[in-house]
Amino acid sequence: MMKHGHNVTGAQCLSKFSGLKRTYKAVKDHNNKSGNGTRSWPYFSHMDTLLGEKPFMSPVSIVSSTGKKTVSQSECTSSDDSCSSNNEKPKKLRQTSNTEKLIEDLKKDRKLTEEAIERRHKENMQIRERLLDSFEKIIDILSKK
């Protein structure tokens, strides 16, 4: 990270990513409950591509106490067409490409933020210079009287 200009430790990265995971899970759980309005989060789509298929986000199996049985993927056979259409999962994208895309997006956001800060700084400096010029003119006028 340091060779790319980011002065952060591994512990800081771990803490940040844990917070992102926690926020992602909270938004996803909220949106999965019926009757709730949907929540949005700017990084949801990125985190969904990274974590959406992970077992800790969407469990492989769910235990029910109701006694009703559902068809699981392990019970499906190749000759049973009803299972293949219901339980097909989308192909998993390469995680490295998703991670690289997320990093690139974060770099772009950071660059835009830094450019905005620099622009505001220049504007503030111009305003202060005009204010100083105005004060100098007022002092010149008052000193001539």
UniProtKB/TrEMBL annotation:
Region Disordered: start-end pairs: 63-105
Low complexity: compositionally biased ranges: 72-87
Pfam families reported for this sequence: Myb_DNA-bind_4
Domain Myb/SANT-like DNA-binding per the UniProt entry, residue ranges: 1-50
InterPro entries linked to this entry: Myb_DNA-bind_4
The name this protein goes by in its record: Myb/SANT-like DNA-binding domain-containing protein
Organism (species): Temnothorax longispinosus
